[in-house]
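Narrative of activities, Objective 1.

The group set out to show that a structural description can be obtained from nothing but a protein's sequence at a throughput compatible with the screening campaign. Below is one input-output pair from the validation batch, recorded exactly as produced.
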Amino acid sequence: MAEKASKSILVIHGPNLNLLGFREPHHYGTLSLNNINESLKEIAQKADVKIETYQSNSESDIIEKLHSLTANGVDFIIINPAAFTHTSVAIRDAISAIKVPFVEVHLSNVYSREPFRHHSYFSDIAVGVISGLGADGYLFALDFAIRSMRNRQQTH
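Output recorded for this entry:
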């Protein structure tokens, strides 16, 4: 039996995050999604962790990506569901079904914004939630994911 390759993380970016850098920079900052992804890849490479980044504006595409993990598993997910945070029971069901630990990330502080943004369909099933720390939230989530995977590996 072949040994499993290095630990792996999937980062999922939801709708409109492809517009980062010029979309409402007062809420989302000035870094592009590519800037964020490159930073994540650099850190993951130094930690000898495989990372894949994925962005979609389509709820069904995100669900299909999550379903694909039953055949091509990952050890941890970092997800910014963006607007789907407040609307998608379907993505919640998909992420629940695959039983992969995840951190929910939001660039803006959702609690300082419109009331409809205060509810998340993901927070209660997430390992943790990072909100309002801008692009650094992704870096903190990645650091947590790497340490969490290493701790699990040491205890098994």
